[in-house]
Amino acid sequence: MSDISANAPSDLDTLTTTPERRRRSGGRMGERSRPNGGSRYRNLVNRLAKTELVDEDALDAIHDASLTILEEIGMDIMLPEARALMKAAGADVREGSERVRFGRELIMDLLQSVPRGFTLHARNPERNVQIGGNNLVFAQIASAPFVADREGGRRAGNQEDFRRLVKLAQCYDVIHTTGGYPVEPIDIHASVRHLDCLSDMVKLTDKAFHCYSLGKQRNIDALEIARIGRGISIEQMEAEPSLFTIINSSSPLRLDGPMLQGIIEMSSRGQVVVMTPFTLAGAMAPVTIAGAVVQQNAEALCGIAFTQMVKKGAPVIYGGFTSNVDMKSGAPAFGTPEYMKAVIVGGQLARRYGIPYRTSNTNAANTLDAQAAYESAFSLWALIQGGGNFIMHSAGWTEGGLTASFEKFILDVDMLQMVAEFLTPLDVSPDALALDAVREVGPGGHFFGTAHTLARYESAFYSPILSDWRNFETWTEAGRPTTYDHANRVFKEKLASYERPALDPAIEEELDAFVAKRKAEGGVATDF
Amino acid sequence: MSDISANAPSDLDTLTTTPERRRRSGGRMGERSRPNGGSRYRNLVNRLAKTELVDEDALDAIHDASLTILEEIGMDIMLPEARALMKAAGADVREGSERVRFGRELIMDLLQSVPRGFTLHARNPERNVQIGGNNLVFAQIASAPFVADREGGRRAGNQEDFRRLVKLAQCYDVIHTTGGYPVEPIDIHASVRHLDCLSDMVKLTDKAFHCYSLGKQRNIDALEIARIGRGISIEQMEAEPSLFTIINSSSPLRLDGPMLQGIIEMSSRGQVVVMTPFTLAGAMAPVTIAGAVVQQNAEALCGIAFTQMVKKGAPVIYGGFTSNVDMKSGAPAFGTPEYMKAVIVGGQLARRYGIPYRTSNTNAANTLDAQAAYESAFSLWALIQGGGNFIMHSAGWTEGGLTASFEKFILDVDMLQMVAEFLTPLDVSPDALALDAVREVGPGGHFFGTAHTLARYESAFYSPILSDWRNFETWTEAGRPTTYDHANRVFKEKLASYERPALDPAIEEELDAFVAKRKAEGGVATDF
After folding, report:
1. Residues 70 to 129 of B: which have CB under 8 A from any A CB?
2. For the segment B248-305, what is each residue's pLDDT rounded down to a tens digit?
3. What is B1-427+466-528's CATH number?
């Protein structure tokens, strides 16, 4: 692209590598810009003005209503240790009850220490990602129980497919981190699954990764695997966020034990919590989008405030995941107009609080048809205009998250790359304005052979992975392939070209020894 | 939708029904808001802040470069009558040359009389559309040589398919006007094709329509058919724009005879000119998007200025149609990141000049696959964020405009309706914030049975035409239909339900008599 140079180097490196404390005045959020050659889609920045779907008064009303919920109704906090911390912090905790209420001043005070942005560290420093400000990070699909490709059909998740999806995430620079497990490998026993999976994350990719908060020991194992992968000390790890966890509230208005424990383990060690209520309007949240966002905001603020009770300055991300249901069936719907509105208002709230914003690339399609594409494209529209910073499920999500699709992964990568190109500033240099080329060609000519064209045509435009721009006749001779056919071919080609990223043999040895030791100990109990 | 009422009636009716002259100071552009029951998708308004892709300096540079083109290089004006008008207006016209140059002051002076907005009148006043400001009008596909549906395959255009596509346009409120001929019916002789087609437009729809500028007589016949359809006098017709024509420059930098004649015939009678250069970067325009937009702007301003030479205050729309080509094959590409940028910068230019903005819903797919959806969705994203007012090819366009697809028409209607829902203001009334419902349900409950949900669930969310949200098992039992399958079913069902809109028998009689008379006269010569 001729316009890479339009990203001024002055945008680089203004983010510190440790969480940056909130500064109430001054200090524009640092951004990383387009990189040098060979990694065009790393360090994406969204400089577009974000969409304000509701005005300041309405945003105030949503904010106020969510604080009223926390103050008057409260949340069920299903872990005594968490309630004790909350009580110590000044929340209204009553003996014999899980219900905890939070004064609005308490919540707002706790938000003061939330970092506006931070670096999430990968074992390869070139894969570090900047979270917050105008930075844009895409994480792969996570947590699907099923996996699908055209030949193999839809099947339960397994280790081989898990590994293939993780490898695909490594193959594309536009996928900045893996998410959780792209598919749940149920052929690995639950007691040791996290050990095998996280070990794979370190070996098969050099990108940052996620750990599930499913009990304290899993968090601790994950922290150790991330530390070993980076080859650093515990102290350095605690100063440099290197692992993230998704914390979901049990909507409405509950935080369960493993999730609260996850916050305690991760926040206390300076690791990243992504606090994400899953508030389906009409099911676990009010049927109105505004009401569902109010509830989302209450639950998100509660969890975010708790991270700061655990450790002031702990890195945390505001997660929004409000969508609607199909009122005919109760099934979740995604990529809808209602989803778009919720995503954008969620972004307004996160920016109001100065907290990085997580959202998702969603759809509810059962196959790689037009629906899969338009629901995802509408999601992308909303999350870009809404200022999403950290995008979960960026590639591979189908069926409302039930299935990780290999073909959808490629379709999403293509769309993410289009978004990245769209966000690249337009070159408006005198050379790009092309007055001389127009003078040369003049009325009635064409630009195919001009020096201006010849100097640029090979890299002038984004070259899509999947779009088939052949004319109808040529396309017909080729057997009329659809996007699904192309995506099916591409994911297999890409997997065949996969190369394992370099890993220090000493680190690999330490990692293997740790996993072997923990397996010998029996992993973790599975009776949770 | 519960939030219809959020559109204050005070937004209504602030547009005059005749072209409103530019007001340099004050006077917010009138908007029509969501209507009363039964026509939810008429009179759409896009209140979102528009995206500024380039800053003011860059916009100035584009503007200046385009005026330099008109001043130094000029355009080939391939009609003596037009050159004479231009000479009289002060352009640099030289004997024996088609080349005409335009001083920048001349162009800017002429833009002063362009209306910021106007009403395009239909024969049914309820179908009148507001052009300009924040108003958003969707016109059907136009001008495809081929037509396709799944059963019939891809075939040359014909009258039956023409009529079926026009009927579909009538069936959906979100299609506000027809465009040109949705498909070219080549089984009607070219000498009388416009008579049959425009007569059908009047009879089969009650919406405003388009006439091709392919020689003076066709314009005159179209004007008469539109006048008869509305049942009004010539004087009223000239005061009320009731017909539009697309004027394409022959890029680079030429306006041919029929197009110039079309401007003369239409503008002199107060009808709508949509001045649209088709500037493919790397082919008929510079390979850089900024350069292609510079050339687009030069050609558009030239044609727009000419409308004002013909008649000050004539309604005109700034058309942008810049995209890139596939540099491997030279084939046009659409819905690309480059297309998005061009659409948005085009909108910035049109707003700078205070002229309504036309753009298009494009894609280059050969079938109704994911590509068709994502390229169109990316186009829609750009044209909404870019502030498009008048959207050509809104529904049915495939293959870069070569084919009108029945199934794609339905897919597009669904996406347009989603856009319309997205643009509907979010209800943030106290009732929508739903504090009472949250109080009622409390932590750990669900909202399915609450009074708040029951009162709203039937109309709370957009009900899509095509999205298949059934679970995988139910969807599998149903034969795993794709979006293509659903669209194929829906267009046939919709056609079966088509009802011809009421038409005064006296008008129909006058129309038939006019067409018969003109046919008896031989229509128009076809040796142009």
Report:
1. 72-76, 99
2. 999 999 999 999 999 999 999 999 999 999 999 999 999 999 999 999 999 999 999 9
3. 3.20.20.480
Token pair of A274 as six digits: 């992504």
> Which residue among A76, A438, A460 places its CB closest to the CB of B295?
A438
Tokens of B517: 């008379």
What separation in angstroms does the CA of A481 have from each of A375, B100, B336? 22, 48, 20
**To probe the interface with A, which of B403, B433, B457 has the most A CB atoms within 10 Å?**
B433
Which segments within A256-368 are labelled E, that is strand? 272-275, 279-281, 316-319, 322-324, 357-360
| Backbone angle region of B18, left / alpha / beta, with phi > 0 → left and psi within -120 to 50 → alpha | beta
Among A residues 185-224, those touching chain B with beta carbons less than 8 Å apart: none
Strands (E), B239-345: 243-247, 254-255, 272-275, 279-281, 316-319, 322-324
Q: Is B341 on the interface with A (CB under 8 A)?
A: yes
Determine whether the interchain pair B448/A284 forms a contact, defined as Cβ–Cβ distance below 8 Å.
no
Residue found under tokens 């018969």 = B516
Query: Residue B9 pLDDT > 60, yes or no?
Result: no
Contact list in B for residue A372 (CB cut-off 8 A) is: 370, 373
Q: Angle at which helices B56-68 and B289-310 pack, to 10 degrees?
A: 60
For B364, other C-beta atoms within 10 Å of its C-beta total: 27
Q: What is the pLDDT of residue B329?
A: 85
A472 to chain B: which residues are within 8 Å by CB? 154, 366, 399, 402-403
The distance of B177 to chain A (nearest Cα, Å) reads: 24
| C-alpha to C-alpha distance for B100 and B259, rounded to whole angstroms | 16
- Assigned token pair, B509: 């009689």
B413 in reach of chain A (CB within 8 A): no
CB pairs under 8 A between A and B: 390
Tell me, yes or no, if B371 comes closer than 8 A to chain A by beta carbon.
yes
Task: Dump pLDDT digits (tens) for A362-384.
Answer: 999 999 999 999 999 999 999 99
B58, with CB counted inside 10 A (0-12, 13-18, 19+), is buried
SS3 at position B446: coil
pLDDT at position B22 is 46
Contact indicator for B460, A281 with CB cutoff of 8 Å: yes
Rounded to whole angstroms, the Cα distance separating B63 from B359 reads 19
A69/chain B closest Cα distance in angstroms? 7
pLDDT of A355 strictly over 70? yes
Cβ distance of A340 and B422 shorter than 8 Å: yes
Residue A182 DSSP code = S
Find residue B325's DSSP bridge partners.
Answer: B332
Amino acid at A331: A
Minimal Cβ distance to A370: which of B378, B411, B460:
B411
Cross-chain residue pair B58–A426, CB shorter than 8 Å: yes
Range 52-71 of A in CB contact (< 8 A) with B: 52-54, 58, 61-62, 65, 68-69
Residue B471 has phi, psi (to 5 degrees) of: -70, 165
Q: Do the chains contact at A294 and B372, CB–CB below 8 Å?
A: no
3 state SS for A382-450: HHHHCCCCEEECCCCEEHHHCEEEHHHHHHHHHHHHHHHHHHCCCCCCHHHHCHHHHHHHCCCCCCCCC
User: Measured between alpha carbons, how far is residue A439 from residues A443, B12, B39, B65, B354 in Å?
Assistant: 9, 48, 50, 11, 28
Query: Where do we find the tokens 């002429």?
Result: B110
Chain A residue whose CA is closest to B417: A337
In this complex, is the C-beta atom of A155 within 8 Å of any C-beta atom belonging to chain B? no
Cβ-defined contact of B377 to A381 (cutoff 8 Å) = yes
Q: Which CATH homologous superfamily contains domain A45-423? A: Trimethylamine methyltransferase-like (3.20.20.480)
The answer, yes or no, to whether residue B470 has pLDDT greater than 70, is yes
